[in-house]
Design a protein that fits this description.
The chain has about 170 residues and is mainly β. The chain contains 1 helix and 10 strands; from the N terminus they run αββββββββββ. Helix content is about 5%, strand content about 50%.
Length: about 170
Amino acid sequence: MLTNEKRSPFNTFKSKFKPLDLPLKIDLDDKTLLKGSQIIDPNSTDTLFIKPNGNFLAYGYLKDTTEFFPLIYVVIGDGLYFRIATFDKEFNKIADTSILNSEGCVPGTLCLVCNTTIQINENKTIRTLDSMTYLNCDSLGNSSDSVVSQSQLEQIISLDKKGHFKITSKSSF
């Protein structure tokens, strides 16, 4: 599809996303987090840009679109899975990655108290921090208040000038 033929569907798709004021802190425990989010429709031209397989919601976009369009969307599953996709000025996808740590908080894990926060900075870096507290647990998955261990997992996603991602992770125990 030529750029002019993609412009209108992309603008319709992008209109589902709200502009994000940075810096922005996202707490996944916030019950109002997705208030007003629109569905990425699998039966529409949205599929030219995101291939939804399940429930996907538009979240927001980073306002600086000088070089490329960075859009953040959410996959709804056992939990909320934030992703970021970048598109060039001809509306072709450059890159798409998960914002969440692949080895961080996992919804429904027994004997684990977990908190995930996402910080999006003005320089387009995205910091995801998972704070995990493992509790003493019996064979049935019943936990006590006794802490076995605590750890943090941090992931930093930076966007280069061409819309590609550099991802670094570190953990502390």
